[in-house]
Design brief:
Elements (H helix, E strand, L loop, with lengths): L6 E9 L2 E10 L4 E6 L8 H12 L2 E11 L6 E3 L1 H14 L5 H8 L6 E3 L6 H69 L5 H15 L2 H18 L6 H21 L3 H21 L4
Parallel strand pairs: 3-4
Antiparallel strand pairs: 1-2, 2-4, 5-6
């Protein structure tokens, strides 16, 4: 079953007076591009988590973020009281008549007046974060599967359209043969010279063989079948589908170069249009 590279996963949980939220967003990319945003206390987990994300997501431009919201009335930054008192005393020594409130305002602006306690990652919190990561990844992968189902229906529709257009060419091929025959006969009549009818038929057959598109239609049909077979596979086949569309494009271009009949050329243009829509969608397949 195909998966889209577009996805979003989110998981939240309360732990020890704070709300931890993990969000993962992915878009299409040729490889795996990870952008990580997390609090400094969790930095020791980054390398391990990058490996887990790359292994499970395979491809895509991935934005990974952890948000922490304190639910208790306890600020993470505190006043460094001894340092502030020391600053105030020094300021008072310089200006004894200064108001204490003004000294306080000046002291709290000084370096190291505020301090942030260095948090250590609790083992239980580590387990909680790992579970949140797996939950967010599960949601993202389900999102990818749902998007993949939509992509699959769209691609099958475009493949059917190309197959239908290739069958419509058959009607115009016979008209083209008659047109070429009549055009050559009229040209020879204008020359007003005797011709060998057998030789004329041989040359006509040789000329028409160059314009024959049977081989291109057979190869195109094989590529269409292989595309559907790959689409129904269980592996991530975005790159392979891209290669198949390239082969389909070659056959359609050859059909166009051999189409010297207006209705055939219209069919080829429509086939190219359908193929371009397929290529756009394939870029987003994992």
């Amino acid at each position: 079953m195909i998966q889209s590279m577009t996805g979003f996963g989110k998981a939240s949980r309360l732990f020890s007076g704070k709300k931890i939220t993990i969000e993962i967003k992915s878009l299409n990319s040729k490889g795996i591009d990870l952008f990580v945003k997390m609090p400094s206390v969790y930095r020791e987990l980054e390398l391990d988590w990058r490996g887990r994300l790359a292994q499970q997501l395979e491809r895509g431009k991935v934005d990974f973020a952890i948000y922490v919201e304190n639910t208790l009335e306890q600020p993470s930054t505190q006043l460094n009281v001894p340092v502030i008192k020391a600053y105030m005393q020094q300021l008072r020594d310089i200006h004894p008549e200064a108001d204490a409130t003004e000294l306080m305002k000046m002291a709290v602006r000084m370096p190291e007046a505020l301090k942030t306690e260095r948090e250590e990652l609790d083992p239980a919190e580590r387990v909680c974060l790992s579970e949140l990561l797996e939950e967010a990844l599960t949601h993202l992968k389900q999102f990818r599967l749902n998007e993949g189902n939509v992509l699959k229906e769209e691609l099958l529709l475009r493949i059917d359209n190309i197959r239908q257009l290739s069958t419509e060419i058959v009607v115009f091929e016979q008209q083209r043969i008659e047109h070429v025959r009549n055009k050559l006969q009229n040209a020879l009549q204008d020359l007003k010279s005797e011709i060998d009818q057998n030789r004329f038929e041989q040359e006509l057959i040789f000329y028409l063989e160059k314009l024959d598109v049977t081989e291109e239609k057979v190869r195109l049909n094989n590529h269409l079948n292989y595309f559907i077979e790959t689409l129904n596979g269980q592996e991530a086949n975005g790159r392979k589908l891209g290669f198949i569309t390239q082969e389909m494009g070659r056959e359609i271009n050859t059909l166009g170069s051999k189409s010297n009949q207006s209705d055939m050329q219209k069919c080829v243009v429509q086939m190219k249009d359908e193929l371009e829509k397929i290529k756009e969608q394939v870029l987003n397949i994992l």
